[in-house]
Amino acid sequence: MSNWKARYDTHKADVDTIMGRELGWWGRKKAAKDPNNLTAQRKAAILKAEAASSLYQPQNIIGTTSAIGQKPTVYYRSNSGTFGHITQEHKIPENVGREKPGKHPLYTAANTGKGGTLEEKIGSKVIHTSRNQFQPFDPMASNASEILTAHMKNPALKQVSNPDIHKKVLKRLKKGYYG
Question: What are phi and psi of 175, to 5 degrees?
Answer without folding.
Answer: -85, -5
